[in-house]
Design a protein that fits this description.
The complex is a heterodimer of chains A (273) and B (107).
Chain A lengths: L1 H26 L4 H26 L9 H27 L4 H5 L2 H39 L3 H28 L2 H30 L21 H10 L7 H18 L11
Helix pairs in contact in A: 1-2, 1-5, 1-6, 1-7, 2-5, 3-5, 3-7, 7-8, 7-9
Chain B lengths: L1 H14 L7 E7 L2 E3 L2 E4 L5 E7 L5 E5 L4 E5 L3 E7 L5 E7 L7 E6 L1
Parallel strand pairs in B: 1-4, 3-9
Antiparallel strand pairs in B: 1-2, 4-7, 5-6, 5-8, 8-9
Classes of the chains: A mainly alpha (273), B mainly beta (107).
Chain lengths: 273, 107
């Protein structure tokens, strides 16, 4: 049971993080009601995506045979990483000059595109990880001795996921809004960077990129990414105990680019940091 | 840097085809991975073919090597591993972690 709950919780944690941060941030925005519609729309789309992917994984849908699913998953990681990064920068600007901007049609259309970007981020976060959970639960259901036990596991799993979401909301109220937003920014960018290195590693697995050096270092004594805790850190931060060179360089390039853009001087009207 | 990486990529892509790699087979059945141990050559890319002969899905996984593959019941697939340093790498079926373990020993 413990293992089941851990799997359900770990897979949902990423989605809960994204939803939780966006929910807390949206509540502070003047156009919160509009934003929330996209947020929940994203959750619904994500559930739909998860179910479709689960059906593909279970061989019910034959649309993506063999390697194609891997390529699709690779694509989802890249799109998710890009959208999360873009969204983090948009979140910093959004709301500051909102009233003025919305009176301008051009700005309104640009904002709409950003809302759809938010919806997509949520949908991908929910869909990617939940697909595995659905397949896992399906297998568990077949093997379970009793339907009651299975339902209990599912219910507890959902409860755990909701707890994560709730804890984030409480956390957002304990610390100052600014502190919470800074931490959220960092968490989202870390998540995106983990997707970047993961996608780069998939490229080396496909054989499309050479690793050049297969193991740049071995830090498994510091933190072994093969353990439960280590793999958790790895999937949320991009940490690797045995990184290959090419993925490592791509990861570093991502961070250099993001930090560079973040600290570039704002060219338009000076605004409060 | 980027241009030489790209050139290397084209070279690598043209030089390797998955069909030429040393191939090993493992079967997932009744919550186990059979055989429980595979001896493989270190320092070269290898291919492991996984066949799920059970009635429930499995997830063939080794987190350190970033291998995570879900397999539906009665289906097969394969994973390609980048050159391994000598040592033992443990793969599990994440849906049956206590009973399904495969030790891949690279020499």
């Amino acid at each position: 049971m413990g293992n089941t709950l851990f799997i359900i919780w770990r897979e949902s944690a990423e989605a809960m993080l994204v939803i939780g941060i966006l929910y807390a941030w949206l509540r502070q925005q003047p156009d919160a009601r509009l934003g929330m519609r996209y947020l929940w729309g994203g959750v619904a789309a994500g559930i739909g995506l998860a179910l479709m992917l689960a059906l593909v994984m279970l061989g019910v849908i034959h649309a993506l045979g063999g390697d194609k699913l891997e390529y699709f998953q690779f694509g989802m990681m890249v799109v998710a990483a890009g959208l999360i990064t873009q969204m983090v920068f948009w979140m910093r600007r959004h709301g500051r000059t909102l009233k003025r901007d919305l009176e301008n049609d051009l700005a309104r259309n640009a904002e709409k595109a950003n809302w759809w970007g938010l919806l997509t981020v949520v949908a991908l976060a929910v869909g990617r990880e939940s697909a595995e959970t659905v397949v896992f639960l399906y297998g568990l259901g077949i093997e379970s001795q009793s339907a009651g036990q299975w339902l209990l596991a599912v219910a507890l799993g959902i409860a755990l996921a909701y707890l994560t979401f709730w804890a984030l909301q409480r956390g957002s109220r304990i610390v100052s809004w600014r502190a919470f937003f800074r931490i959220s920014e960092a968490l989202l960018l870390l998540l995106a960077s983990a997707l970047v290195i993961g996608a780069a590693e998939k490229l080396t697995n496909f054989g499309w990129l050479p690793t050049v050096i297969d193991e740049v270092w071995d830090s498994s004594r510091l933190l072994d990414d093969g353990t439960r805790f280590g793999s958790f850190v790895a999937s949320f931060t991009g940490y690797r105990a045995h990184p290959a060179l090419t993925p490592l360089l791509i990861y570093a390039t991502y961070w250099i680019a993001v930090v560079g853009v973040r600290y570039l001087p704002v060219k338009t009207k000076p605004a409060n940091a | 840097m980027k241009r030489s990486l790209l050139a290397l990529a084209f070279l690598a892509a043209s030089a390797t085809t998955w069909a030429d790699l040393p191939t090993f087979k493992v079967v997932a059945k009744d919550g186990k991975l059979i055989p429980a141990r595979l001896d493989v050559p270190a320092g070269q890319r290898i291919k492991i073919e996984v066949a799920n002969q059970g009635k429930t899905p499995i997830e063939f996984e080794n987190l350190q090597l970033r291998v995570e593959k879900v397999l539906a019941p009665d289906s097969d697939s394969f994973v390609v591993l980048n050159p391994l340093r000598p040592g033992t790498y443990t793969f599990i079926d994440e849906f049956h972690p206590q009973t399904a373990k495969l030790n891949v020993v690279a020499k």
